[in-house]
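Structure, all two chains, one model.
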Amino acid sequence: MYLYDEIDQKLVDERVVQFRDQTRRFLAGKLSEDEFRALRLRNGLYIQRYAPMLRIAIPYGLLSTKQLRKLAHIARKYDRGYGHFSTRQNLQLNWPKLPQAPDILAELATVQMHAIQTSGNSFRNITTDHFAGVAQDEIVDSFVWCEIIRQWSTFHPEFSYLPRKFKFAVNGARSDRAAVAVHDIGLHALKDEKGEVGFRVLAGGGLGRTPAIGFVIREFLPWRHLLTYVEAILRVYNRYGRRDNIHKARIKILVKERGPEKFREEVDAEWAHLKDGPATLIPEEITRVESRFTRPNYLPLPATDRGLQTALASDRAFANWHKRNVHPHKKPGYAAVTLSLKKTGVPPGDVTAEQMDRIADLADRYAFGELRVSHEQNLIFADVQLSDLYSLWHEVKALGFATPNVGLLTNIICCPGGDFCSLANAKSIPVAEAIQQRFDDLDYLHDIGEIDLNISGCMNACGHHHVGHIGILGVDKRGEEWYQIEIGGNQGEIRPGRGASLGRVIGPSFARAEVPDVIEKLIECYLVRRDSDAERFIDVVHRIGVEPFKESVYGNADQRAAHRRGQLASA
Amino acid sequence: MATLIKERRIVADSWHLLERGPKGELPEVPARGEVIIPLPLWLARREDFLAYPGKLGVWLDANEGPEALADDVQRFPLIAVNFPKFGDGRGYSIARLLRERYRFKGELRAIGDVLHDHLFFMEQCGFDAFALREDQDAQEALSVFDTFSDSYQASVLRPVPLFRRRLAAGKS
């Protein structure tokens, strides 16, 4: 955990006072609905389908157990006893009351938390790899860089009223587990031949209604220039990003309209003035931020554990879980563990207050009192001793978080959808549940292998459907809920050679009840066509193209034409 | 008439803001006085205005920039920047550029949809005068400049970012 110093704490406390005053003036009729909206959104407060929704920031997904217990307390006292972990690694409460929002923020501030810039046209919570600091393929600990950018972006006076929201991701490992190519700015850490840290900077990526893969605006940016360069990008965007049409206001549209080369030139021209200025980072600051992060007190341990080997050999259920939900660690004798929030029948990402408390207890006992939220809406214990895995598994299983499906079809990313969200065209949670029920055979799931299935209830794409290997999008057809299917999307270069890509729609949309059948047909097509079980669904889509999958769902071209003729004849 | 806050005090405003007509027509300029003219008028009749007997300020709209004034920036005792809507953040960048890049030392005034809750950031970016929208309570707004006791970033008000000041404080 990054521990606040006095100034960090004071700023968060002052934010509470500010928002309390703003809420008071709004309730007293001194602020219009429109004016207050811009202010409350900056504190994560939406007016939703049934009540306000409060989005609490979990910077780069890192939480202490003290903070998690506070979240449980808030969910219990101010809400209906549960919360929803989102794909931005934040926590959303669906039923808070507006007059109590300042009190909630005050409670959060006591544990160094807040809801700053979790919504509105502002610089949002920074996301990163949920294995930061423990990954075997680590280049840098991305948390440190995330925190530096968090501070720079918090209450930035110049960039507090951007044309639109701004999402930033940092990846510090060789594999991209932060989906940097689909963010307004994405950083990918690198080291040059002298071992100096720098970043490949991507700009103009994003999901939403106009998905785009970010372009490499700078191949290698030395770390000390990070803030001045980002400032140059933001200034060009703030001045020239479109403000006439909310759907064309993201930076990706500016990049597209200018062209990447022209955009880069403008940024470079701006940067020429800022480069080497006072915002140039210094080694002392990196060291200071590093030293404010608490670190686990690792024990010197052997790389293998005999008790673990015995348990794996004798307990098949445990071995299944270990295969999917336990991940390698850079320290010998340790592993990272995913607690799956994707149990069939539970909305993905939802956790009750009671469960939060129990998870906090487990993290205290097994994981140095820390955990992470992944953008796949699971929880991670990053530092677990190998010798503890078997007993941890029993406890996690008892809580219902041991579904051994990480990376598999039922580990669905899903937005709250039409059950909660006022923007949604269609429900998404029941679709996830229907798919999970259809694919409930664990052996079959393991046989299908690694696949990302993502569901969004509308084109705002909070469920990241564009980058699911299979993506499902809820659409509205004359007041009815329909679902469009895409295949071939990929969130980033998790495996070498397969970078980020956007999915392609396979054809006309389906009624909700048809969706599990369609998924099954796509999966069958994949299983027949794959070279070996090492070739994943996404690899096959890229090798053979969309057409065979289309055929498996809609029939071949002749059959499709005949079907259309039939429809016309009956119309 | 809008209330003016200047250097954190409520003051009487002697300047006359000349707006463009409903179809964008450029305004007539009185023979003398203290007037703030729109940028296009300055650009169209710069030579005439160099001999203007009164005091002359210029105002920039959100889609305009200090680049158009360039070296002329220093000629003006006052530059105003318009916020067409409070959520339009372009003026913040314009202000920083005027102060930091063009070294403008005169009065930098925020005009237009200028509201209580935006003054803090405006001041950080270099505005020292605020023509509040008419319905705003100026007395109440004076307290807003102390909303936050510090800020992380380099800005006009605090040219040295917090991380460098933290280091200096640690060394002393």
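The beta strands of chain B are 4-6, 9-11, 16-17, 34-38, 55-60, 78-83, 107-112, 129-131.
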